[in-house]
Design goal:
Length: 247
Amino acid sequence: MKRGAWRSKRHLIVNADDFGQSHGVNRGVIEAHERGIVTSASLMVRWPAARDAASYARRHPELSVGLHFDFAEWTCEKGNWRPLYEVVPQDDLQAVMQEANRQLAAFRRLVGKDPTHLDSHQHAHRKRSLYSFFEEMAGWLDVPLRSLDRRVRYVGNFYGQNTNGRTLPKLITARALISLVTDLRPGFTELGCHPGYASDLQSMYRSERTKELDTLCDPQVRRAVANMGIYLCSFHDFNSDARWRER
């Protein structure tokens, strides 16, 4: 990639969330990276499978790995939302800050370096009371923060449920993904995804993960990306280009 080419070309980062949450999720993320179009992943450091995920990342440095902050997971049952688990109350800024710093330290121990990007489980970092802290952390790490860094657009529409947890399989087909990619604008775009095998995962988003995996590995998707002249890249590429431009 030529320096500054981001201004006219379309660059796509395909980022798999929840890396490390379970061994089944790990298998899916790895398969989507090796056989599909996933170029990046976000690591959840609190879970037992995080060590294996980090080990894979150390052996495959081409996969950019960010930190997926994990403070809670909410699930919807019959239209009512309740916490599946809670690490710290998300309305307690001091508790969130302490836990975020603990998770960053854990990431560094596991992966052996800083994350290439920051985001969070169920977008907790976008809460009005929290995002300033996470923007500051991203600033001193010199990495992008999902949705809040104007240099990288975030596309979260490749997701197989609505806001109340109803399954919408048509949103995670190859046709749907190709349509999303077709509409990309010049510059860097992050496409979020959740590939995995969910038999060992307790979550409201389970059966959709294998469907996402099949789509991300579908040869027609990769062909479409190539035929449209879209540069499939990772956060390594973005960070390298961004730091060159700041000189």
